[in-house]
Fold:
Amino acid sequence: MLREDVATSPQLLRRMNVGAVLRYALAAQTFLASEVMAATGLTRSTVLGLCDTLVAQGWIDEVADSREAGQYSKGRPARRYRLRDRAGYIVAVDAGQHTVTAAVADLRGTILARTGHTIDGVQGPVRRTAARGAVDSVLAQADVRPEEVFLVVVGVPAPVDGQGHSPAGHDYWQHMNPGFPAVFDDCGRTMVDNDANLAALAEHARNPGLDSFATLLSGERFGAGLVVDGRLLRGRHGGAGEMRLLDIVQGAGSSEGLGFLAREWAVAASKARTLPPGSALAQLPRAQLSAEAVFAAAAGGDAAAQGIVDRLGERLARVAQILVSLLDVEKVIVAGAIAQAAQPVIDKAAAVLDDVFQPPVPELAASTLGADGVVLGALECGLSMLRDEPLSFAPFRPGVAR
Structure:
């Protein structure tokens, strides 16, 4: 609880109290002044004054009093308030290697619009243009102006430090993280983070009792978001979840992801003419030999596809065991657009873990968030920042400086 007799400046004390009331409003639906009093320890007059301030600033609205709402029949009616859900907005961007997905949400986290675009090339200028186009599209769909946006959170397939930069000396990382804050300089603040870290935040928000796990993005390349004892691991350069160690660990293979390898191995078998004539994969043009096609064929009993699934499962099992050996995580969540389709691979990997490795071995599971894991994690990151530091943002009001 807060105290009103703290030995501090009146201005600082008032700011602290305004922040406390606003944090309560962000977590509540419609609320009473008395409920804020119970949660904060502030007096009625103080709470009412602070609520008046938040109404004037555009954060909350005063709604029909409790007597009108049928909750009170005697005495002084309690004043009731409600957060203005659209006082500001959070924009989430998943700037993947080949696609960019954007979503805009209100202050409750309700997604108002979502869109996805293919990125035609990996060069920085192309990626910046694609990301801005996706964000402009969702803002237009939701009838939101850039100046109404509090925060843009961008997930990229590269390690990212606390300042939003990726380590120098790696062209791929620089292409993936080409300076997005400048792209959104009219949209409030911009935060850039690693995509696997954001996916891990999304999983943690939906599994609050799960405190030690790895979220493994597994499309083109492996990348892990690592949560240990309830804390997301980052490292000095933001590379705690980079899986480059797989390139040097014997038997682990490489950091190439399940989606990439399934496609490449199927195409290689087609070129080598080693696919049996009756295989479902042999009937497909090489351009259609996607990971999803391989997994679907394996689920249908295709022996050639099952062989690829078995190889992938053995590799995934080794990756999972490396993670549990290093970090003692209890679960590895396979995430990304490929996750649901990759269930046959996960089943094979789980069997390998039980048969080959000594316990403890991690539980394996496919994420239920599908292709939206990074976007949902970016929204969770933005909402968490808002809840932690609400007064660092301000609702847009024409003619009033923010």
